[in-house]
Amino acid sequence: MSTKTRKSSVSYRCTECGWTTAKWVGRCGECQSWGTVEETGAAQEHGRTQAARSVAQPAKPIGQIDSSVAQFTPTHVPELDRVLGGGLVPGAVILLAGEPGVGKSTLLLDAAAKVAGGRTPRDVLYVTGEESAAQVKLRAERIGAVADKLYLTAETDLSTALAHVEAVKPQLLIVDSVQTLASSEVDGSAGGVSQVREVAASLIHAAKTKNMTTLLVGHVTKEGSIAGPRLLEHLVDVVCQFEGDKHSRIRLLRAIKNRFGPTDEVGCFDLAETGIESVADPSGLFVSRTPLPVAGTCLSVTVEGRRPLLAEVQALLDKSSTAQPRRATSGLDGSRVAMLLAVLQRRAGVALASLDCYVSTVGGVRLTEPATDLAVCMALASAAQDRPLPQRLVCFGEIGLAGEVRPVPDINRRIQEVARLGFTHAVVPASPSGPGKVPQGFSVREVTTVSQAIELLFPHRER
User: Fold this and answer.
1) The domain containing residue 26 runs over which residues?
2) Of 250, 280, 310, which residue sits at a domain end?
3) I want to staple 145 with a disulfide (CB 3.0 to 4.6 A). Which of 8, 67, 113, 361 is the partner?
4) Which positions fall inside the RecA family profile domain (predicted)?
């Protein structure tokens, strides 16, 4: 075979996204992944697979499909059911990812025990590849997650794990984690791209053929994305992200992808020594409880998914002892706080250029929504004036570089939430539709600029 013929019969394909190229490259030109381009055979103009002579189950009109077999079954963990859209769907494959130590295993062990020990007990198989069975048993006893129909095995071999599935025949399978299982039929170490792909494909096939709900625990990279091939997120039905600060007990569960429900729901949990508990009303967790009003604090309402949460922003200003004033943030985007400092300095006349600025949230919550801009500015203005804001007041609104206060979504929902919690005043952005129906006894003031908001809350202020 000539060299020319040899070159024309070889192509290279990315194992992550399927991108093909005529020559080998170290980095995929489509998904920008390193080391995923592998040599394949000649690119075919037509597929090699031929149509089967017969099919076991012919296609049916969609109206004749029985959907009762795919109904939600609650896990009796309220916040988990909220994020999943109502509970577990038979045959669904759910991927739960999160940083080490955030509480993924604790959450799934608690859910497994409640499914296995509920009013209608179901067989649950928990496959752990990171701990021994005795270690998992100790955690289960500590959090009260022991049930007769909860089966436990410590296994890292995929074929053995599938044999356990055949023996137990569970309605719910939990694998902790997908990166620790490995197949002897595939080259590479556990956690590699080829191994994760084979493990996921085998478990998904077992879940669909046996109508068995499967929960997979996934690791994350140092950038926060799910480790392994991107194909893993496409194959599963639901992808959930478990988040939380290691120094706080509060944990948030978000659905990034959900074929059976909404992707804008957020579940809130309290992780303690005795286990993990659902928090139905987490608004009070992110607010300080000082007996007297303090300058430099302002309350805001952020919307996580479809849930409004009350949060507090605190600001502290001090005379700088260096030529370059210090800017420090905690729980907020530092670059956005720097922008708001510039807007206050330029558009509202608040002198902050020579002061050290410290801005933080309460309770370890991270505020990324632009609707909290107005609360940050009011906290900074309160600290600059050394005058506390009125009690039972909340502020929310997005602030632009021109100093304007822009409308934000769900204004009326935010107002209804703070009114339920006992607040009586709100400063909100002016919008064409207005704030909507306001509860009785609640006062709403609309503002269009940040300087107008400062003049409203701090009349006769010093410049």
Assistant:
1) 3-40
2) 280
3) 113
4) 69-220
Please enumerate, as own/partner, the contacts of 284-290 that have beta carbons within 8 Å and a separation of 24 or more.
284/310, 284/421, 285/250, 285/363, 285/365, 286/250, 286/310, 286/311, 286/312, 286/361, 286/362, 286/363, 286/365, 287/311, 287/312, 287/362, 287/363, 288/312, 288/314, 288/362
Considering the domain architecture, whether residues 319 and 435 belong to the same structural domain is answered as yes
In a domain, 66, yes or no: no
- Model-level pTM? 0.76
pLDDT of residue 5: 44
Tell whether 30 and 157 lie within a shared domain.
Answer: no
* Cα distance between residue 449 and residue 175, in whole Å: 53
Q: Give the SS3 label for residue 27.
A: strand
Give the number of domains in the chain: 3
Q: Are residue 442 and residue 323 in the same domain, yes or no?
A: yes
Percent of the chain with pLDDT over 70: 95
Token duo for residue 15: 């194992």
Give the integer Cα–Cα distance in Å for 311 and 84.
25
The token pair that represents 74 in the structure block? 């609650």
Q: Please, are residues 274 and 292 in contact by the beta-carbon 8 Å criterion?
A: no
Picking from 280, 313, 332, the residue at the C-terminal end of a domain is: 280
At residue 151's C-alpha, the angle toward residues 149 and 153, to 5°, is 175
34-43 contacts at long range (C-beta below 8 A, 24 or more positions apart): 36/193, 36/229, 37/12, 37/13, 38/12, 38/13, 38/14, 39/10, 39/11, 39/12, 40/10, 40/11, 40/12, 40/13, 41/9, 41/10, 41/11, 42/8, 42/9, 42/10, 42/11, 43/11
The C-alpha atoms of residue 327 and residue 316 are separated, in whole angstroms, by 10
Do residues 369 and 307 lie in contact, with contact meaning Cβ atoms separated by under 8 Å? no
Distance separating alpha carbons of residues 122 and 197, to the nearest angstrom: 29
Annotated binding site: 98-105
The radius of gyration of the chain's CA atoms, rounded to the nearest angstrom, is 27
438 and 321 assigned to the same domain: yes
Percent of the chain at pLDDT above 90? Answer: 59
From CA 169, how far away is CA 235, in angstroms rounded? 23
Closest CA to 207 of 249, 238, 253: 238
Reading the block at residue 7, the tokens are 């070159």
Residue with tokens 């952020």: 302
Residue 68 confidence (pLDDT) above 80: no
